[in-house]
Amino acid sequence: MKGVVFTGNRTLEVREFDVPVPARGEALIRIEASGICGSDLHVYRSASTPGQIGGHEPCGTVVEVGEGCMRLQVGDRVSVHHHQGCGVCDRCARGETVSCRLAHHCYGVSRPGSFAEYMTANEANCIPLPEPLSFADGACMACVGTTAYAALRRLEARAHETLAVFGLGPVGLSAVLVGRAMGLRVLGMDVIDERLALGLRCDADEVIDARQGDPVERILAFSRTAGVGWVEGVDCLVETSGATPARECMIPAIRRGGRIAIVGVGGEEKVINPTQIHGKACTLIGSVVFPLGWSWDFVHFLLASGMRFEAMVTHRFALEQAAEALRTADEGHCGKVLFTPHEATSA
Questions:
Q1: Which of 179, 264, 285, 338 would you call most buried, defined as having the most Cβ atoms within 10 angstroms of its Cβ?
Q2: Domains, the chain
Q3: Taking a C-beta distance cutoff of 8 angstroms, is the pair 38, 168 a contact?
């Protein structure tokens, strides 16, 4: 089979590998769609790399099950949660495998990932993908989609509220889609024309170009027209860009008592003044990925709401086009970029 390996400083190779054999408690999955995530781009840009197949947003079909598998059967359609823990520590017991104390692994980093025709995955990480959902939905669900859902869930977002999304990359666009599906009025902010257009395509009520005028004033104006008229600031805010100028706008843009989820990975700049937090009586949380069980919940949400990710998918590539695919995602003038290794049978 073919697999994509990062070789450092924005270089990669498409190599030949043996199809892996599932170990006890694992399944062999034929990859139908795998997304390129911002976390993959951090590895792609780095001088040092894991030296194995990349990718951590897998979705596909089970073609073989290892000894000891109790739930999965050949032919099952699955999305794969990318963090695998020890299964015995207190954090794994809560489903927080991303912060496992003893044996944390991430597909595409410490284990072979999904930029390949096949991969093996722990049965516990395989989330059933019901037929109404496409393989593209499952790939988006594997990381960026459920990450956005988790941020809004942690903010306890409610249908009558307003939401600002800073950064309209794949996580931000997912937050727009999920927020609208929850019934919120949503404003998106970015500095890239293509992503502003995608925000509207994903049904944002309004988008603003942060390069033009005072973005905070425009967010406050949105909150007045979208809300009850006298509220100054949005109820909820999801920051996905990691950009310092965007982070400087977070607290001024939120209403008194509002809630902010910081999702994007940024630099080390000190941009938050605790006095502002006190003055706004607002809540700031860091929202990192999501517990394993929330993936199952998100499937129910997608089925009940009818929400789908197709509006944010802009590119599909074969594995042989990996250099172009990663370059496209890295340049940022796009939405979600997917590998579809078996496109003839991809949904």
A1: 179
A2: 2-134+308-345 (3.90.180.10), 146-286 (3.40.50.720)
A3: no
